[in-house]
Amino acid sequence: MTDSYLARLMGAFPRAGRVVWIGVRPERLAPVEAVERALAIDGGFVGDHYAGGKREVTLIQAEHLATVAALLGRDRVDPALVRRNVVVAGLNLLALKDRRFRVGEAVLQYAAPCHPCSRMEDALGTGGYNAMRGHGGIAARVIAPGAIRVGDAVLALDPAEAGR
Asked: pLDDT for 108-148, tens place per residue?
């Protein structure tokens, strides 16, 4: 298998993802507030207390929330409990590693996996931390600012488009 073949495989996505939920954390330890629209700027979301930190924007897959719920024996997990900014359906976020991607009007770049913190035990109950392991989503940097709305597409960018 050649590097170019592997690069082609890693660049092929079956479809765009879709933003299904957005949340901001106005201050440390405050409950996450669900919003219909957030403005991504250099450093994170306007109104989010993490703006300017190393976790500018955090994203998690809706499919992983369903898995976490199943592991906990629940019907569902409220996205606000896992303290991520954006819930995306239909796109494998881990496949965005080392890539830039468009979410609504903004361009983000994969920065790191977003591992659970010990607060998941309090938020989700006994075993919540372990239920989240491997399902915590990703952290991303804002490359180009713009609005992100519930319903917006999430698209991996080709390297040629990544600077735009």
From this structure: 999 999 999 889 999 999 999 999 999 999 999 999 999 99
Cβ neighbour number for residue 56 with a 10 Å cutoff = 24
Task: Establish if 147 belongs to a structural domain.
Answer: yes
Helix or strand holding residue 9 (H, E):
helix 3-10
In a domain, 135, yes or no: yes
| pLDDT of amino acid 164 | 46
Q: How far is CA 142 from CA 16, 111, 145, in A?
A: 19, 10, 6
Which class for 38: exposed (0-12), middle (13-18), buried (19 or more C-beta within 10 A)? buried
Structure token digits, residue 136:
């915590």
pLDDT tens digits for range 47-60: 998 776 678 999 99
Tally of domains within the chain: 1
In a domain, 11, yes or no: yes
Whole-model pTM: value is 0.92
Secondary structure (3-state) at 98 = coil
d(CA 93, CA 33): 23
Does residue 163 form part of some domain? no
